[in-house]
């Protein structure tokens, strides 16, 4: 009788089984939720690495060039009669320091992400190296480092640290030169006439940035070597792009802000030759006037950039860097020519450069999520 009384009833067994099944379902749901969150996090990290490409270094080039502009404007002249130039000496040193720190932080962050991409998605990096646009932007991080080296508030030229860093940042540029320039005249499918596009000028800018940094150290032979290498290819590239050969038809409309690189190369060449020769001579003036004309001719054609302005992308940063280089060259011109026209020109270009830079910084902060969104366009 007692055994019969101690046996659980059918209802108790049903309830126990229901509770057990419910507990297992809850635990399983929690486990699935945790796994889903982990998977989502991993996919998010992987998405960032697959979305980031060398074109994002447009931002770091612009930041580095702007920091160099602020440094040069603050140290522009000791001539008390140059009121417009002397006005820039009142720029707060803390603002320049913060800008330089922001530039170095951004460059380190993007470089770290790109190194991770090289490890985990090397096939995509190799695709960039083979791409007629992507390969050119592989120069961008090294150009950024060279410009930041010259604008550094604590590293002085002619020191061992400066010289070592120059080699570290210049050797990759020379390696890329051997690959890309060599393909331009030895590989049939990659002849310059087949792959030339406005972003090809970034390779020239890389050599000129190296020449400018070498001249600051007093390494005149190295500076002339880098300068001649860059300018020889620039003249051939300029003529090729001017004639609009086969490569021009493969340049997407959204990339048209890169047309302003036409003015960036001669501006930096003017600065580099000034450092090499020690004076803003006739050659420097000719290169500056060429860059000013090219910049003005593009600025007078806003309809050309209508399609690329429909949606904010990282390509918009291509407006800032060339304008900043033109402003830098104009500051050297204003030092040489003491007239009011040169000073006003420097004032207009410098203020325009700062305004464009601040505008792009604001737009980037507002649309930071969109910049990391995967699109169908390679660049």
Automatic annotation (TrEMBL):
What is the role of this chain?
A: Slow, weak voltage-dependent S-type anion efflux channel involved in maintenance of anion homeostasis.
What GO cellular component entries does it have?
Answer: plasma membrane
Report the locations given in the UniProt record: Cell membrane
Entry protein name:
S-type anion channel SLAH1
GO MF terms here are: voltage-gated monoatomic anion channel activity
Q: Which family does it belong to?
A: Belongs to the SLAC1 S-type anion channel family.
Query: Which keywords describe this protein according to UniProt?
Result: Cell membrane, Ion transport, Membrane, Transmembrane, Transmembrane helix, Transport
> Which superkingdom is the protein from?
Eukaryota
Q: How does it sit in the membrane?
A: Multi-pass membrane protein
Q: Which residues cross the membrane?
A: 93-116, 137-156, 162-181, 202-219, 225-246, 258-280, 286-304, 316-334, 340-366
Chief location of this protein within or outside the cell: membrane
Which GO BP terms apply?
Answer: intracellular monoatomic ion homeostasis
| Oligomer and partners | Homotrimer.
């Amino acid at each position: 009788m007692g055994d019969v009384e101690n046996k659980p009833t059918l209802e108790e067994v049903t309830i126990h089984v229901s509770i057990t099944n419910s507990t297992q379902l809850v635990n399983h749901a929690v486990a699935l939720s945790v796994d889903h969150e982990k998977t989502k996090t991993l996919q998010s990290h992987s998405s960032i690495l697959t979305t980031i490409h060398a074109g994002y270094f447009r931002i770091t080039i612009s930041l580095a060039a702007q920091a160099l502009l602020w440094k040069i404007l603050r140290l522009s002249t000791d001539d008390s009669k140059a009121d417009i130039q002397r006005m820039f000496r009142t720029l707060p040193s803390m603002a320049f320091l913060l800008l330089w720190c922001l530039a170095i932080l951004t460059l380190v962050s993007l470089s770290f992400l790109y190194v991770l991409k090289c490890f985990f998605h090397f096939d995509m990096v190799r695709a960039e190296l083979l791409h007629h646009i992507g390969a050119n932007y592989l120069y961008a991080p090294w150009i950024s480092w060279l410009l930041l080296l010259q604008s550094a508030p604590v590293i002085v030229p002619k020191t061992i640290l400066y010289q070592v860093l120059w080699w570290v940042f210049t050797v990759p540029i020379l390696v890329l030169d051997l690959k890309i320039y060599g393909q331009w005249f030895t590989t049939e499918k990659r002849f310059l006439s087949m792959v030339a596009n406005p972003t090809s000028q970034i390779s020239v800018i890389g050599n000129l940035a190296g020449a400018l940094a070498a001249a600051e150290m007093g390494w005149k032979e190295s500076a002339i070597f880098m300068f001649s290498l860059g300018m020889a290819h620039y003249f051939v590239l300029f003529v090729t792009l001017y004639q609009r050969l086969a490569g021009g038809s493969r340049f997407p409309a959204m990339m048209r802000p890169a047309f302003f690189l036409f003015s960036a190369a001669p501006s930096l060449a003017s600065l580099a030759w000034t450092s090499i020769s020690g004076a803003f001579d006739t050659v420097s003036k000719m290169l500056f006037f060429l860059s000013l004309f090219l910049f003005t001719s593009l600025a007078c054609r806003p309809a050309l950039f209508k399609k690329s302005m429909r949606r904010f992308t990282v390509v918009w940063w291509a407006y800032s860097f060339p304008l900043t280089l033109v402003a830098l060259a104009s500051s050297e011109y204003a030092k040489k020519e003491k007239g009011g026209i040169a000073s006003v020109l420097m004032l207009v270009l410098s203020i325009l450069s700062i305004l464009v830079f601040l505008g792009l910084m604001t737009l980037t902060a507002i649309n930071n999520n969109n910049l990391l969104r995967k699109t169908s366009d390679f660049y």
